[in-house]
């Protein structure tokens, strides 16, 4: 089963204890893959260290022996970065799941990499504070994975991505060297900001073991509205007015194209939110301390937008339950795997002004090649982030063909092939659409400098 | 005068034209140093390229010849990073000063590195937008230098430092390779976020030539208050309440210790702002769209704080002129060189909760060693950033002794020896107080990977 020399296996067991090292059939199958749908791979061993010192011991041993190491968090990634290496060890952070401290006055939280996003959110909430990142996998995904993939999600418009939440990071390098960059400060101009390299590196430069995260005051009130719009330009104008009026407090601006709204209503048996269908529907959240004032200001802004012909129609939720009903339309994404056969999903980023044209051109190209195809367009448009899902059954299951169309257009519009999900193995073939050869060469030089033997998550991202 | 081979000098002149290459006495003395007070150095040549292609040509030639290159922006740095190398060339970006475009809908601005901060602020303002970084040297400092030092300043509490304003960056590496990472997107998870390395690297990894910057809606209103406080803990509590009530809109929270207020009033012949002296005074700005509402909310919050004994006294400016008068107390920093002989200045960062203790311990240590010394404490305390200035004449001109006291204490409190000014040459001896040997080794490995001949701003930061 194992091609390790027995001395290596013995040294691992001695360093971590027998219960922290598993091999072969003893490794739970959930460690063989992630949510990307990539084919499962059984690693030679799964190790589950309990501390940074144990992570360092594992990496020192693997480095001496030349064994590849694949870090694993909650295994909810969509790009395949956590899929094991058949000749390597999978290093799970799941036992390092402590919230070590919350400093309410400074609004910071120190956490081990294996804590779930939800645990961090709850620890912040217990102090009247908010953690700025939220996403659907919150109960399973782990902070180390969120950092390693620079996760986005629902809060980016207001608070930025994981990178913006991270004040400090403890990292173990490929050779076992620990970089304890955990000083909880907003400002620290002392040489290169090394932690930035590991955020979004998908485990290819080292293992993230602990982090100091920034928290925000939890808003006392949030008001939700659904706005009907005739075209993409109107959506952009509305977004600009919202950000002007509610500077720093626009918590969501999710845009749904008609195809998405129609599919969502059908799949979930919901009623049309407006008297008639509209080309675009925007879901808006604004946050603040005074609910009545917030609602009045939003009513005024949307009233003006309707009078000016900018908005076609609008509804403001009068309760949290009503807000939930409006959000339900957007949450149809959970239904995609049930209703598309299978969905071919994209997570692209584009210059804000080009998103409307990009979507229209993608649709026209699909239409020409696969008349009657099904595709839905939606996304965190306030962040420049468009998601689209194409029903594989309606495009001859030509996933590569659809990807080529989308990513060629991303390259043409100077966009990104991955806004928030990362590269892993899944998007590696298309990295060149968003990065020049010179940029990739610089990344490889950095990889070689920090991981000269190429043992950290080999074959992922740069490959 | 020059130790270049004449062929190198000729090649430079051929590539850039004679008017872009100066040597010896023809180099204006202002290019010999920066605002750090470091001793001036005359470089072998000053080159002033007009384009990224010309910057690349200079670096290719210097790389082939093994000539050190020191990039220069507005020369307002306080750490000495832009001081020339006697055997190298100074590369000034001053001719690359175009604001290339402003995209008001997307709130982004594309700019060449040599544009001044003020030019960027004005270009944003012309579109009803705001650039999030502001600092005293705005009319002279250049965007490339602001990025290379990850500048901070007055807007950090609300908008973050330069790093947070930068969506894209064009960089020329030591060998002349251009990395055109200018895609203007908020979300772009495609491999390592290379631009983060160059931000704050003080020109030691390459030359920043262009950037895409993020803009914000310009707030329609801003209200300023001055609040008297009995102790540091009260200041922290007040800050927390402000951030809770005005989430995302607290634009300034500048704390001044009594020593600073007293010196400021004396130096500028200003009146005491309150009926009696207080241990601490906080200057607060809140921004928003509705001035009357903002003022009413701030009045309510400060009224409650006074009733609860949290604040000792408070005054809210009723006009922009009154706000200017309140701000004048904080702006005494411009008077430091006149009234201290000379000032020994610090820019340190500490965990928020420790700033009060840190300041008290520094003062006690100074007092024990130099009874009757003069020192003033102030800073962007909302960011964890404390400035302090000690009058050299009152501490036997023992600059090294004062530095040792302050930086030892920074190390003890796990703080940063440079919050926003950078390392340059000035703080190099103290880098070890904020960074471990392992962290410095990782930085050197990255430097070697991107600049194997060590020609980019040699001797700065890592040395």
UniProtKB/TrEMBL annotation, chains A, B:
Keywords: FAD, Flavoprotein, Oxidoreductase. Residues 39-218 form the FAD-binding PCMH-type domain. InterPro entries: FAD-bd_oxidored_4_C, FAD-bd_PCMH, FAD-bd_PCMH-like_sf, FAD-bd_PCMH_sub1, FAD-bd_PCMH_sub2, FAD-linked_Oxase-like_C, FAD-oxidored/transferase_4, Oxid_FAD_bind_N. It comes from the Bacteria. GO terms for biological process: respiratory electron transport chain. GO terms for molecular function: FAD binding; oxidoreductase activity. This is FAD-binding oxidoreductase. The lineage of its organism: Bacteria, Pseudomonadati, Pseudomonadota, Betaproteobacteria, Burkholderiales.
């Amino acid at each position: 089963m194992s091609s390790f020399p027995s001395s290596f296996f013995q040294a691992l067991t001695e360093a971590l204890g027998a219960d922290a090292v598993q091999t072969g059939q003893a490794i739970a199958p959930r460690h063989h893959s992630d949510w990307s749908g990539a084919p499962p791979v059984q690693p030679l061993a799964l190790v589950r260290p309990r501390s940074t010192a144990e992570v360092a011991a594992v990496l020192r041993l693997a480095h001496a022996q030349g064994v590849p190491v694949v870090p694993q968090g909650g295994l909810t990634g969509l790009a395949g970065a956590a899929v094991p290496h058949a000749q390597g060890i999978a290093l799970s952070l799941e036992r390092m799941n402590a919230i070590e401290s919350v400093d309410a006055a400074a609004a910071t939280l120190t956490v081990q990499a294996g804590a779930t996003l939800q645990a961090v959110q709850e620890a912040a909430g217990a102090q009247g504070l908010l953690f700025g990142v939220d996403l659907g996998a919150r109960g399973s995904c782990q902070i180390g994975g969120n950092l390693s993939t620079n996760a986005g999600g629902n809060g980016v418009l207001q608070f930025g991505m994981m990178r913006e939440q991270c004040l400090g990071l403890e990292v173990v390098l490929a050779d076992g060297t620990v970089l304890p960059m955990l000083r909880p400060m907003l400002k620290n101009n002392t040489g290169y900001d090394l932690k930035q390299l590991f955020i979004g590196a998908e485990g290819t430069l080292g293992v993230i073991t602990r982090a100091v995260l920034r928290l925000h005051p939890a808003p006392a009130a949030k008001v939700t509205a659904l706005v009907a719009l005739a075209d993409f330009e109107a959506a952009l104008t509305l977004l600009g007015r919202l950000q002007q009026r509610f500077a720093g407090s626009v918590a969501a601006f999710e845009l749904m194209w008609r195809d998405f709204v129609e599919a969502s209503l059908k799949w979930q048996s919901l009623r049309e939110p407006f008297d008639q269908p509209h080309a675009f529907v925007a879901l808006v959240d604004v946050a603040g301390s005074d609910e009545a004032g917030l609602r009045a200001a939003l009513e005024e802004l949307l009233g003006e937008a309707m009078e000016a012909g900018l908005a076609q129609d609008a509804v403001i939720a009068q309760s949290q339950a009503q807000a939930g009903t409006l959000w339900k339309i957007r949450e149809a994404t959970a239904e995609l795997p049930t209703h598309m056969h299978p969905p071919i999903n994209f997570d692209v980023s584009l210059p804000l002004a080009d998103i409307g044209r990009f979507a229209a051109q993608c649709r026209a190209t699909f239409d020409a090649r696969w008349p009657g195809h099904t595709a839905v367009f939606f996304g965190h448009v306030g962040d420049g982030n468009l998601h689209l899902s194409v029903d594989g059954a309606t495009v001859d299951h030509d996933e590569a063909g659809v990807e080529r169309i989308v990513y060629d257009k991303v390259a043409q519009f100077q966009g990104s092939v991955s806004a928030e999900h990362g590269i892993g193995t899944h998007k590696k073939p298309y990295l060149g659409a968003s990065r020049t050869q010179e940029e990739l060469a610089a990344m490889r030089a950095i990889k070689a400098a920090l991981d000269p033997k190429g043992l950290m998550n080999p074959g992922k991202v740069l490959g």
